[in-house]
Design a protein that fits this description.
binds 2'-O-acetyl adenosine-5-diphosphoribose, Rossmann fold
């Protein structure tokens, strides 16, 4: 393990452009449940049955109760040393390195905002932000940090239903965020895949984009992932322990 860490550390020092894709696993150590596996269940509902436009149309109150539960957990959570290490890597890469500027782009599938709270500057948010809401009628979007939201389902000033401004199954990703993610992946010399099962597309496809454009791939996860066989470095362990050691 130490040898792999050292090899990746050296490669990160050398690389001008680095990108990272994070998933629910990086927030697990902050106490936020992941999606897949037993701990992702809420009252016997799987996220796949709640995080859809159809579920919201059928029962907006139920879906909001689930989001209230998640918002409560996230509100109490704190970023850990792994989140902080990624913010530090960003600072290191953007500092002048012998006259050349490096770049680090953080792309996250997480909606919890823990990367922002750890100091990462404008991470790419592929799946939206749990602290924002959007009106189904007038389309107005705003920040809402009420925990819990007392009147369910919440309504907009125009009377329309408010929904969480997150991406649900079957919905497209925000085009501007996707463009940024694609560009960063295509330009990266090293692409880090951290705490994601890498089974949800299109996000999981970014590793392939990076790889085809010549990037080296590193996977950080305690469990095997479908990307392990194409990775140059596989670090089996928890992001909160490995990232601080790496960076
Ligand atoms: P998953 O729940 O699918 O996967 C979490 C991954 O984190 C698994 O591979 C775990 O092995 C790993 N993991 C657990 N603890 C870890 C730790 N301490 N350090 C590092 N890794 C750890 O979550 P995602 O891959 O993020 O989408 O799921 C992708 C998307 O599916 C989510 O963004 C969400 C979900 O449905 C939408 O809501 C659109």
């Amino acid at each position: 393990m130490e040898e792999t860490l050292q090899a990746l550390r050296e490669a990160l020092c050398e690389a001008k452009t680095v990108a990272a894709l994070t998933g629910a696993g990086i927030s697990a150590e902050s106490g936020v449940p992941t999606f897949r596996g037993k701990e992702g269940l809420w009252r016997n509902y799987s996220p796949e049955r709640l995080a859809t436009p159809e579920a919201f149309a059928r029962d907006p109150r139920l879906v909001w109760e689930w989001y209230n539960w998640r918002r409560g957990i996230i509100h109490r959570a704190r970023p850990h040393a792994g989140h902080l290490a990624l913010a530090e890597l960003e600072r290191k890469k953007s500092a002048d390195q012998e006259g050349r500027r490096g770049r680090f782009t953080l792309v996250t599938q997480n909606v919890d905002g823990l990367h922002d709270r750890a100091g990462s500057q404008s991470p790419v948010k592929l799946h939206g932000d749990i602290w924002r809401v959007r009106c189904l009628d007038c389309g107005r979007e705003e920040r809402n940090e009420q925990v819990p939201i007392l009147e369910l389902p919440p309504r907009c000033h125009c009377g329309g239903l408010l929904r969480p401004a997150v991406v649900w199954f079957g919905e497209p990703l925000p085009p501007d965020q996707w463009e940024r993610a694609l560009a960063a992946s295509a330009q990266a010399e090293i692409f880090l895949v951290i705490g994601t099962s890498a089974v949800v597309y299109p996000a999981a496809g970014l590793a392939e984009v990076a790889r085809r454009s010549g990037a080296k791939l590193a996977v950080i996860n305690p469990q095997p992932t479908p990307l392990d066989h194409q990775a140059d470095w596989v670090l089996k362990g928890e992001s909160g322990k490995l990232l601080p050691r790496l960076i």
